[in-house]
Write a structure and sequence with these properties.
10 strands, five-stranded parallel sheet, alpha/beta, about 350 residues, single chain, 11 helices
Amino acid sequence: MPTANKGTILIVNDHEENLKNLSSILTKNGYIVHPVISAQLALKAVSQCQPDLILLDILMPDMGGYEVCECLKANEESRDIPVIFISVVEDISAKVKAFQMGCVDYMTKPFREEEILVRIELHLKLRQMELSLKAANAQLQQKITEQKRITEQLIQSKKMAAIGTLAGGIAHEFNNIIGIITGNISYALSQINENEELFEVLSDVQDGANQAKKLTQRLITFAEGDTPIKTTKFDFKKSGKILVMDDQEAILKLTGRLLNYMGYEAAFAKDGEQVIKIYQEALKSGNPFDVVILDLTIPEKMGGIETIKELLKIDPKVKALVSSGYSIDPVMANFQDYGFCGALPKPYTKKQLSETLNQILK
């Protein structure tokens, strides 16, 4: 019973008896055989049957095996097909020339059946390994190309992240400056009559500052994404004792001025450690603070999140506002999750400060 197909072999030999014997041996051993009796037929058959291996006689009329092999190696479609030369010539120079032409093996007649089967099987395995290696290499090249694309995207993403960080830092500093400007303008407007020319001038300045505030918020949004803060307006309530933490002296002065104008008593700290000390002292004295306003970020020192954790240990009923120029920070949007009672985005006006405090103190 014939075995399963092991491959396709093209036999080229001008002697019909040799051709018949080789075909019989290979067919009964599971190979698909295409026998041809001349070089010209061989070259035509290659493109038609796409053989896995070629058994090629050297000595043939009109066109010999060397010339056929040269044609095969010159054609892109057939150059990689393994060729085994078969010849009665045992001269070493003939063998050397055969290998120089590109053959993979050289067999002399008469050959033994076992020998030719072993050699054919070996070279077909080598051919299969070569094809597998090429396929693996193609996949590897594809993966390298994909990895290169991903790496380039990652580099671009890191660049954009770096730009976002820079933009966010600059926007935060501008936000503090704008907060000082708008806050002081808001305070100044409350001190003069609406009919005065200076009131109109300051109102124009305030409008310009508000436009700058919007631009700054766009930069912050670009840097960190967009998470809106829920806000609600309430009537003013002007009483209480407030502790304010901020690393910007100008913001402390501004907030103090606004709080004093609204009737609140204000105390100040520049970092979390000062807040804890001042809060503990007020608590022990029996005159505790009604509200603590904590800046979210204090460079190189205890900021708002760390401070509220410690304050809650001291006084679980502490009422604290988180304040930041990063109005889209998750802490600002979800302040309750961090122990705060409210959020106060910078820059804020007297009205915004008053409404927020009124909500906590109601």
